[in-house]
Amino acid sequence: MICITIEEAQIIYARSPSVIAHFCDELNVVKHINDRVSWDPNRAEMSPGEAIKAFVINLLVKREPLYRVNDFYKSVDISNLFDKSWQADDFNDDRLGRALEKLAKSDLPGIYHGIAFEALEKEGILLDQAHFDTTSLSLQGAYETADSEEDSLRITFGHSKERRPDLKQLMFGLGSVQGLPIFADVMDGNTSDKKWNGDMALQMKDLLPSETLRSKITITDSAMVTEENLKIFGDRPFISRFPENFGLCKKLKETAFENEADWAQVGTLSDKKNSAIYRIQGMDTELYDRTYRFAVVHSSALDQRKQKKINRDMSNEGSKIEKSIKTWSGIEYHCHEDAAAQLEQHVATRLKYHRLTGEVKRMEKVKRRPGRPSNTVTAPVDIYYTCQFTV
């Protein structure tokens, strides 16, 4: 029996590192990495998978810089996290850096998806539908790309979903099943959502059995709906919002409102007071030589919001046109033809909510000389023309 004083004792708290290590072991993270990374088991004291596991634990607990990860493990019960008796200094930045380099050169999507699918299997979660979306991460700095790194990720300007178009960025794509991220991708900062949706569809074809592809429903935003992406999906089921820039979208809405009796009443989807009331109408229509099932959804709340916007836009347009009329009406023209030409131009102004009409009026202005007017001399009269408008 070993006896030590309280002063000699070192207190180590298990806490979150043990939980993270447990899930890494449950999902065979080390094995998935080692199976897909190029390394020599006979020469390596620590496998790349074990090094990455150590890095992940630190990343999720304290997020130390690479050169300070070994300091993090000085206050952690290492024997409770790893099968081997590692020391804190074994997790030095050289070893972790080499592991990260090997990981970067490997099949990163394959490693991630292998771990994610194992999580689904262990939890008994059915891969019946997956939600896909992208987001951007804005970064500050120069981030100049070296000539030798043409194939690496490009931190560059693109469509910023953080509303920071002044900053360079990276793009992230994610596919989740019941909230669990099973498909993941990191992309150049200027990657379009349309291209990513097509690329992800091709990746799923390589990752999933054909029967799973035919039964799994992909749920994504309107960026997926392009002619090329629809060809990639083929007969695989998906749910997406139909983009407004398709002429067919307007036709479907018009058809739905023409067939008032075909609406199916859904009702409210919330217990809140004055919740929106929904109704839906489905129809089969051809797009790019393939028949799809479309659903037109009508919301009473959308009607109210649209009416408020229409009223606001109408008021703004009315104020602008009244201001313009005040300016136009104050201009004097010396011939009828000039006034008529300007009137025609002003009346042709494109307005959404108002109709502008007008006429040319002949006006007279008596030119009086300074001083007391004479009883015998008639003051000259100037003839001019103005444009009068009616809204």
UniProtKB/TrEMBL annotation:
It comes from the Bacteria. Transmembrane segments: none annotated. InterPro entries: DUF4277 (IPR025457), IS1634_transpos (IPR047654). Residues 19-116 form the DUF4277 domain. PANTHER family: PTHR34614, TRANSPOSASE IS4-LIKE DOMAIN-CONTAINING PROTEIN. This is IS1634 family transposase. It comes from Peribacillus cavernae.
